[in-house]
Automatic annotation (TrEMBL):
This is Exostosin GT47 domain-containing protein. One of its GO terms (cellular component) is Golgi membrane. The keyword Transmembrane applies. Belongs to the glycosyltransferase 47 family. Residues 1-53 form the Exostosin GT47 domain.
Amino acid sequence: SSCRLFDAIVSHCVPVIVSDRIELPFEDEIDYQEFSLFFSVNEAVWPGYLMQKLETFPKEKWLKMWNKLKQVAHHFEYQYPAKKDDAVNMLWRQIHRKLPAVNLAIHRTKRLKIPDWWKRR
């Protein structure tokens, strides 16, 4: 869950993300590959694969990821009052960028007789 992801990041733990398809918070601004490890579900359920990869992960690469993680961790921290680029501001920016697409979908659905016309092609 994103709660565990936030906890890992603010605790400066390099996240290990197991998913075939995931929408990560603030991904349009933050490149998670710089500080996270990704595995597919198939890789994760393959006996021993995940542990072998984690145990043999190069220390230099891990340190580089960890340093990058420390640079972006403030984006995942909730502050009161909110501070520039903290989690609250990042969430509002993300909502602001997604809102036009949501409005477009709502307006198209209202005017079209076949609401999902763009999916049928």
